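2024-03-11 09:14:02 DEBUG pipeline.ingest accepted 1 chain
2024-03-11 09:14:02 DEBUG pipeline.ingest length=470
2024-03-11 09:14:03 DEBUG pipeline.predict start
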Amino acid sequence: MVKAWLVALAAGLVLLVGEAPASALAKQDVLIPMDDGVSIAATLYVPDGAPPTGGWPAIVFLHGLSGNRTQMNALAEAFGFVGQSYVVLSFDARGHGDSGGLVSIDGPREVADTRAVHAWLAARPDVADARIGAWGISYGGGAIFNSLVAGVPWGAVVTVETWTDLYSALMPQGLVKSGLVAGLAGSIPEAKRDPSLVALQAAAFAGNTAAVRPWADARSSLSKLGSVQTPVFMAQGRRDFLFGIEQGSLAYQRLRGPKLLYVGLHGHPPSTFPAADTGFLMTQVRSWFDCFLRDPVCDPTPGSVLIAPERFTGAVARSEALPRTATTTYALPGVTTFARSGKAVRRTAPLRKAIEVFGSPTVQATIAASGGWSRLVAVLTALTPQGKEIVVSAGGVPTRNGTRKVTIRLINQATYVPKGSRLTLILASASTAQASSNLLYLDLPMPATARVRVGTAVLKLPGLRTPVTK
């Protein structure tokens, strides 16, 4: 699914904004040498004419996992970054496209590559070395954050649907999002995959947090963002089941320089990029770069948090802080005992009013596990009055034999649930218990003797005090 999303990117951008003008397409392909002998393939665009005093400002575009610079070229051309204002550079990350080397998922080696690309561009006499920005999506956004806290002197950055804490994104509460991780791993050709990733995936699937956490910490930026003064524009998806809203909102709270958080319709599945608001988003992005790379005395935005409604018509909600929420609690009584192929299903009465879920719902329940039962997965859906089923969120926790109270934090997202909808909570060993197509948490093996008894479940839903979707 990730690969299909990336393949559709370039074509989707053309549909959104049309073909780029022919004059914007003059470019040259270059190879940038790394200190270990690997060559990084890049595409360079330089505006016509003499550069301004001090050189052109520049923007580097970084693609997603299993993507390549061709997709970033399409984006830069389609949204007018290529032309008379900026030097633009896109590059194939290590192990991608025409670049050499192996993929190790934005680790220290990839940070060194990003630093070298920045230095190569800054060394050009026609580039203003203090006014180089970066735009990155998903894997590329993670590379930007990791290079930023490693000291790469970006002038301003934009990150789209990415992470700042990789452990909490992939293995929240110690239970790996096994379906998503398998999909990400499968998108990297075996010949391009660092051998260490095979053992790491096995450790994650086995619940070996001691092996996964230090690996993820080395690829995370959140704990170091408090010292960052660089202007940072973060665009997270309302409904992104890989990298939730908190990956941006927690960063927003820590950053000390100019910052903007945009919560929009783009994202990893169940969302897409591009989306209905991508044109609006990229207009904001252009203003951000123009402000910090071209006009040092500008006023960047009228608000620092922007939230797009689920039904986008061209306007967004703006505020100076993260939105306030109120929690609605539902007690869902019952006692259900089941094996690996079973599930507990609890439903609410029709909602008396609409709710715009914003944040991480939680599910609390007392369970009794036996026979080696090792995990409990919760999937929350809504059935609208029109008969449409929406997967609101999902999450899971590892378990062990015995009776205890568990709290499952579901994925942090924003979903509008209309008045009259009925919520359904499904508790099982895998998200496939809700639907065979729901591959967030796979049905991994458990002993044939495994059983679990689930008592009353308490669902807590955080909702916007002032909804943005009408």
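2024-03-11 09:14:41 DEBUG pipeline.report Confidence is low (pLDDT under 50) at residues 1-25.
2024-03-11 09:14:41 DEBUG pipeline.predict end
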